[in-house]
Design a protein that fits this description.
93 residues, mainly beta, 5-stranded antiparallel β-sheet
């Protein structure tokens, strides 16, 4: 769940985004497995470009940090952090 705010310049929208992130992390050792659903946060930047009526293309970078906890079976921290680049095309009705 994210919000975004930015600035429109002609038909290009530059924005920053941030919000909540959720992910399931799983650990396994000696045939025993354990999973946790972690809540964390995400922030990023992006741009959306209108290239035809009702059509938009976008690219964005997100950094995701899922909070760290410890697995019970191993005692190892299970936090996860990563960067993500996404691109897409949208049609607005």
């Amino acid at each position: 769940m994210r919000g975004r705010a930015g600035y429109a310049l002609d038909n290009i929208f530059f924005y920053g985004t941030g919000g909540l992130a959720f992910g399931e992390l799983r650990g396994e050792t000696f045939g025993l497995s354990e999973s946790h659903t972690n809540a964390g946060w995400t922030v990023g930047v992006g741009a959306e470009f209108g290239f035809a009526q009702n059509w938009r293309a976008k690219i964005e970078y997100l950094y995701v940090d899922l909070a760290s906890d410890n697995f019970t079976i191993t005692g190892v921290p299970n936090g996860y952090r990563f960067g993500l680049v996404r691109a897409g095309v949208n049609y607005h009705f």
